[in-house]
Amino acid sequence: MNHDQKLAVIKSRTRRRMLFSMTTLVLYFAFILNWTEFGSILAQRLGKSHITGSLLMFCGLIVTFILLELLFLLLNQATTRSGEDV
Amino acid sequence: MALSGNAPLQPLDPLAIGMFLAFVVATLLVSYWASRRTRSSADFYTAGGQMSGLQNGTAIAGDFMSAASFLGITGLVFLGGFDGLVLALGAFAAWPLLLFLLARRVRNLGSFTFVDVVSQRLDRTRIRIVAASATIVVVILYLIAQMVGAGKLIELLFGLPYEVAVIVISILVLAYVTFGGMLATTWVQIIKAILLMTGVTITAFLVMAMSGFSFESLFATAVSNHPRGEEILAPGVLFDDPVQVTTILVSMLFGTLGLPHILMRLFTVPDMHEAKKSAFYASLFMGYFYLALVIIGFGAVAFLYGDPQFFTEEGGLIGGSNMAAIHLSTAVGGNLLTGFMSAVTFATILAVVAGLTVSGAAAISHDLYAQVICKGAPEPRRELMLTRLTTIVIGVIAIVLGILFQNENVAFIATMPMVVAASVNFPILFLSLYWSQLTTRGAIAGALVGLVSSISLIVVGPQVWVSVLGFEQALFPYDYPALFTLPLAVITMAAVSYLDASPRGVVDRQNFHDLLIRSEFGERNQDIQGVPH
After folding, report:
1. How is chain B split into domains, by residue range?
2. Which of B107, B233, B237, B516 best probes binding to A when mutated, by most A CB atoms within 10 angstroms?
């Protein structure tokens, strides 16, 4: 792989990293909505259940972050296999 | 982790002591085995870089899931319901970012510590002195918080006197680290992680069994028993200010990404593929752990409130809210589970303190002695001997500080390492990897601003200014100031770097290109020659 190809790979990897990181940060800081007027709906119970939107959001964020990591690793693996990356 | 210092001493629990002794014997045998394989500094600092991704991920989880996470978060949920989960999310979200942003580049550039990474393109001597000093500050503060919390906790759990508890912890950690280095530390952390996950799983399972395996029933019981009723299912019981929540989340997230003993674990695997796997496995285990804590936290609310055996005559939980998880294990699993969970908690403390000790020893003997004093060419046997000696000194310091601070409110000391790591270590590391214009002068100025502003704002904040110094009102309203100190450090680094017209600044900028290629491809680029340091 020559120098320009290496730089192209780095650019592509960095874009992917930034996309995943920004998604994580946006979701993470969205948790603050729970303490604001905009997010007051999250504090409501879901139907007649005792589970609130806030509790569901906490559990949902943890699962989503793990899935994002898995997706990131799978994408890395796929690009490595296809030879676009090393 | 703030433990009540006036809690009544518990009677000596033979079951808990027995289980703990079994753990100690097993881990000492591991240390003996590891000591026969620890012959060089690389073995000592990074277990020879031979751990697999799964092993290292489990060890990272073992290193990070501290007693503060387990007991502290359960205690906060016990007190305030949903609000207690803020710290859990803060601690967890760092792991995806570690994988996305740092794992590959840090692993490819460093050898033993994160200071190796930041010194790749900046002036080695100056940046090492600053970054290693920040590491030592973080390690010492973290160590004090762990030792004081551990001493009080063990006093409560096992009925051992405080001083004896602190000395026992230090002696055991010294035995692991001095002889077995990172290899022994890693295995202690792996064993502890497995034990903690087992204990948490059993407790959560029993809580669900007592609730008829129905979340609805669990939350309904919790709501009916807690004095604040339905309010515990939503935000607002412990925190009502969104800025306060934001600054906690910023401190926890970026603080975790700057913890030297966590970053150091990325070098215990053979390559960056295993480093990335480590971060993923660590996330998986910790995600499971924090989800189980939801059940355990609300289980504590459901099954402890209203049961007088767990409360003092004044109405407080025996031993304070941090004992909620232990009392819950008594409520759902009797003495056997209590003994197991107490032993696991002790093991947890040992594993975390061992990780911190290795990190502190590496900062002194590798970052300062080998790289700064010996200019990167130390005599190997001498370096290894110094590392072991440093470990003993850190152990002694831990005992002395643990005893000196025993009557202090250590909550603020537990806050400091996260805020300092977020405001000093993280910006230096991140900008040195991703921003081509960073110069040594900018990095040092920003680090100093981050350090001074973090400590100053913590001192004038509620935990020190009001709780420790006794003033009526805090000069700064938040306990975790990283929302303010991290941007301040970054802006300083950026501004000073832009204005830096020194010859060294030019070299630092030119070095970025070479570093970028190496950080991504793991080898020195043949086409591009970096400017020598």
Report:
1. 51-136+187-341+410-521
2. B233
